[in-house]
Amino acid sequence: MAETHMGSPEDPVSAGHRSEPFWGRRLGAFSVHVFTASGAALGFLALIAAVRGQWPLMFAWLGLALLVDGVDGAMARRLHVAERLPRWSGDTLDLIVDFVTYVFVPAYAIAASGLLPTLLAIPAGLAIVVSSALYFADKRMKTADNYFWGFPALWNAAAFYLLLLRPGPWITTAVIGALVVTTFIPLPFVHPLRVRKLRALSIMLLIVWSALASVALLRGLEPGVLITAGLTAIGLYFLCIGLLRGSIRQ
């Protein structure tokens, strides 16, 4: 395998970059893996904030991790990381970081935030991490047209809305129970960037959501009625739009 990365004529990656030093190509590719792995560091910082009860700061770190997750794939493709560094699996690394930032830290936040009845806080956190671990291992978590089958373990989003809206303890319990169960039910959930149906609308709403969520964090998760209503409406769109998968034309 190493010989194919030494600039042989059969290697299209090497052939297209003969002027670039071999170790320079590898270093550039490895830097993308380091960039992806930095999402785990951001997750660690988010966990520290969560332990201190600094929820807006926690979500700020998780938001930066989302940004890393959103751009590292394009960087990896541009630098041909899979071909240049076959020893390291970008897919595995991405799943590890996603589990930390999408599941583990938010599960702790939900359990420690006081949103749940005291006796149910730890069991709820355990249900979140176990169900999500099983979901991440599911080789059929996505459909051919890039929808997720079942609730896609977006517990960072769930934690955000629970801490924003702060429903009663039993309503929170019911919401978490429903999402855990829905993880294993083959209902379609949209991927806003990869699903072609209504993609322009989904991306536009995602941008608006990001702006509103930023304001909410700057205001300590007390942004006022209008911003809360906007965030809730957009959240309901992404929660329900997958149900129209069969009725919207490609």
Number of domains: 1
Q: Give me the count of strands.
A: 2
- Secondary-structure element series: HHHHHHEHHEHH
For the record, the CATH class is Mainly Alpha
Largest β-sheet summary: 2 strands, antiparallel
Give me the number of helical elements: 10
- From the spread of the alpha carbons, the general shape counts as globular
Q: Measured on Cα atoms, how large is the radius of gyration?
A: 20 Å
Fraction of residues in helix: 55-70%
Q: How would you write the strand order of the largest sheet?
A: 1-2
Question: What would your notes on this structure say?
Answer:
The protein has about 250 residues and is mostly helical. The chain has one domain: Four Helix Bundle (Hemerythrin (Met), subunit A) (Up-down Bundle). The protein is built from ten helices and two strands, in the order ααααααβααβαα. The chain has a two-stranded antiparallel ribbon with strand order 1-2. Helix 3 runs antiparallel to helix 5 and helix 6 runs parallel beside helix 8 (about 170-180). The protein is globular, with a radius of gyration of 20 Å. It starts with 11 loop residues before the first helix and ends in a 10-residue tail after the last helix. The model is unreliable at about 1-20 (pLDDT under 50).
What can be said about this structure in brief?
By secondary structure, the protein is mostly helical. The protein has a single domain, classed as Four Helix Bundle (Hemerythrin (Met), subunit A), CATH 1.20.120. It is built from ten helices and two strands.
